[in-house]
Amino acid sequence: MAVETSCDETSVAVVKNGTEVLSNFIASQIETHRAFGGVVPEVASRKHVESITRMLEEAVRGADISLQDLSAIAVTEGPGLVGALLVGIMAAKSLAFAVDKPLIGTHHIAGHIYANQLVAEMKYPAIALVVSGGHTELVLMEREGSFKLIGRTRDDAVGEAYDKVARALGFPYPGGPYVDKLALESKEVEVLPRAWLEPDSYDFSFSGLKSAVLNAVNQHKMRGEEGYAPAIARGFQESVIEVLVEKAIRAVRSTGAVQLLLCGGVAANQGLRQALSERSAKEEIHLLIPPLKYCTDNAAMIGAAAYLKWKSGEFSAWELKAEPSLSLENWSVK
What we know:
Helix content: 40-55%
CATH class of the largest domain: Alpha Beta
Number of domains: 2
Number of helices: 10
Number of strands: 10
Largest sheet: 5 strands, mixed
Distance between the termini: 22 Å
CATH superfamily of the largest domain: ATPase, nucleotide binding domain
Strand order of the largest sheet: 3-2-1-4-5
């Protein structure tokens, strides 16, 4: 059984052998946080407390098993919101102790990466492009359960940039899907800058692009113009996607990876999925992208990643605590 409460989704799943999802239930808090224009940590924690017991019960019932059938209890220990993480960890600890099963603290980003294992066999070495509201990273995986960061954002994560641009264009939280839809429908485009950084760098930067969008919006408003949102949305998305795709493909080529993985909440972006699929096909690179239900935060992905620790017998102590800045590289399987 796996528990995920790193941000604003309360999720519990039962996963068999790291690949077969027997149940995966999610209680979303989007409507609650929309009123605030973003996730409020204290509110998120309280919502997790309200939902976690029901999610545990539904996961067991949905998998049609008993608690004694479980082999271990996995839980996200980080990164994430400390209060939210603590709710899941305390619930997982309590259940593991009650049914006398091992506890496996699991890395949230490892979960996003191994969501791909739920739909297809992962092969190594591989490059994972992780894109979410809090992370934008390129991860080299030389073997199963091994993670080496070769690129990361120097400022805003791509999902964060999407939400800020959406807010500037007048869309509600979460704004990423609105920008994606508008960009794909627009016939006009406002050309915006690309941040390539140093020639050999795999790092990302989106703060300059975000500022360029805000400046463009202000210029249109000062001139009394209307109807500019679609062109800006398309220009922003094209800038983001071009940089993400180009650096991911270059990373695959330079490392000799045999597979490219797209992971994280922004992996649900239709423009990115299409562009990366087309470029990978052209370059004859084997690409894996999880279905939409496994892109956003969910417990099934945590179960898939935790299975790596289960196989190697790496279990967590009862002193397991929330780690808001948990290192992915340090979580690698021994």
